[in-house]
């Protein structure tokens, strides 16, 4: 646990440093509101743990980890505008706090800082660019060509959530100088964790208490969004079983990785198991 907290502190310190370097002051405050308002920091933790698993250090991967967190935060700003959600991470969402225009500008600022962190490595840039294309296709699908089967839902979950998770792990492997086979294996692990995370997120939206969750629930049904519950007619328990299956396959993907740090790998396994049991 102490090692995890050290990694988290490393991420937070670098995140604050990046955000505090923004100008002008208004943009900095808007970005701070989004990027520093809490959050589990799951994606940057995946980046650091993936790097350490294959022999790199957390310090080598922290810029990439912070970058992927900024990309994720930017996507949440836009999600909240689309959904008209006034609450995020237990606080006011960006558009509700500052208005639509400033919120969109803050999303741009987040992406700009993220790509500055990736810019020194062409492989990192390619990984993130591909993830953002997938994310964009997923968001467009959710708004227009909504899935009508479990298979189509799983494709949407891979694009909407799995893609950024995959990028997070691949960035960690790239930071450690890994070969393409290792990059792909860690990417598959994280993509499947992301899909499990999305399925569980859909279930929580359908059944969780909003005060405990830290954001409003029932959005998927109210907005007719293609959640696993809406699309497949699976019960919450059956949907959770699907999430567990993805988690199991994620752990299997780690078996293809030559491990240099067993403790870091163990944390990745714990994460895959946690995302299907989480209550927030």
UniProtKB/TrEMBL annotation:
Pfam families in the cross-refs: polyprenyl_synt (PF00348)
Cofactor (UniProt): Mg(2+)
Protein biosynthesis among keywords: no
Keywords from the UniProt entry: Isoprene biosynthesis, Magnesium, Metal-binding, Transferase
GO molecular function terms noted in the UniProt entry: metal ion binding; prenyltransferase activity
Keyword Transferase belongs to the record: yes
Highest taxon of source: Archaea
Classification via SUPFAM superfamilies: Terpenoid synthases
Entry-linked Gene3D superfamilies: Farnesyl Diphosphate Synthase
BP term (GO), one: isoprenoid biosynthetic process
Family: Belongs to the FPP/GGPP synthase family.
Protein's recorded name: Polyprenyl synthetase
Protein source organism: Natronorubrum bangense JCM 10635
